[in-house]
Amino acid sequence: LQEINIYTEMEERPSGPALCSICRVTEQEELIEPVLTGCAHLYCWPCLWRAVKAKGDFQCPMCRLFVSVVTADLSRGRSRSEQEQIESRIPRRPAQGMFPFNFEDVEAVPVGVVPPHPVDVVPPQPVHVVPPQPVHVVPPQPV
User: Fold this and answer.
1) Where would I find the H helices in the chain?
2) Among 12, 27, 45, 109, fewest CB within 10 Å belongs to which?
3) 89-101 b/e with 16+ CB inside 10 Å = b?
4) pLDDT tens readout for residues 35-70
5) 39-43, 96-100, 106-110, 125-129: least confident range
6) Helix (H, G, I), strand (E, B), or coil: what is residue 75?
7) 39, 44, 13, 30 alpha-carbon torsion, rounded to 10°
8) Phi/psi at 71 (nearest 5 deg)?
9) pTM for this predicted structure
10) Coil, strand, or helix at residue 44?
């Protein structure tokens, strides 16, 4: 695998800016299963998966915000074939609204990528806010 620094600034290429800041593709049709993070950064799904797997921190490679959900960008890029998916050992792009990273069901990490430690991550749960209850004040009684 080619070593790529995923935390460098986006560079201009002769054909325009990189669409995926990890693999640096510049043409929409070169994107592989493109996804948008909640912070609106666009990546090829395999690139984002490998980057997050390598770091083990579930953060966006560009802005470091927690990636709790990704949205498939079906208007550009291409899907991987079954053979490509098997060879890469990277799961399919997640369904809309699902936590995107589940490393337990993958038997091996791509060559050269070693997570620093096993990761047990529970996707964030919705916060249930209980509205305050009205307080009934009783005035003091004269003695």
Assistant:
1) 45-55, 82-88
2) 12
3) ebbebbeeeeebb
4) 999 898 999 999 999 998 888 888 899 999 988 888
5) 106-110
6) coil
7) -140
8) -115, 125
9) 0.60
10) strand
